[in-house]
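WARN no homologs supplied; continuing
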Amino acid sequence: MKIGSLAEATQTPVETIRFYEREGLLPPPARADNNYRIYMPAHVERLAFVRQCRSLDMTLDEIRALIELRESPAKDCSDINALLDEHIGHVSQRIKELRALEKELRALQARCTSPHPVSECGILDGLDRAASSPSTVAKQGHVHGSH
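OK structure emitted
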């Protein structure tokens, strides 16, 4: 199948497929005489695996490691468990960071509980104060997204 068919079959944007190829998460496809990529059922299976891992917020490096381990079926699976334990730790840390962010946002929201002119808005005032505070500048970006 061509890349458009693979994209449709897996509901994955073409650019994402090309990105995963560049990152080595998908094996290079064969090329037709016209230089079009030709994908096989193994590509569909691998892409589904990669997308499932991404839906679990796994990094590309974690996925690469899982693919490498997956390709050694006789090997002990303790490395897979260790990888998952580490990932669970990252997820737990993100949850803590998101809870702290929620608390901070709720405190900010509490600064303005009734309509006022924008010039007297407690939320904007709180944002301005935090933006000019040296301790806040160091804290910016505390919710890292995907580790």
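DSSP finds seven helices and two strands in the chain.
OK
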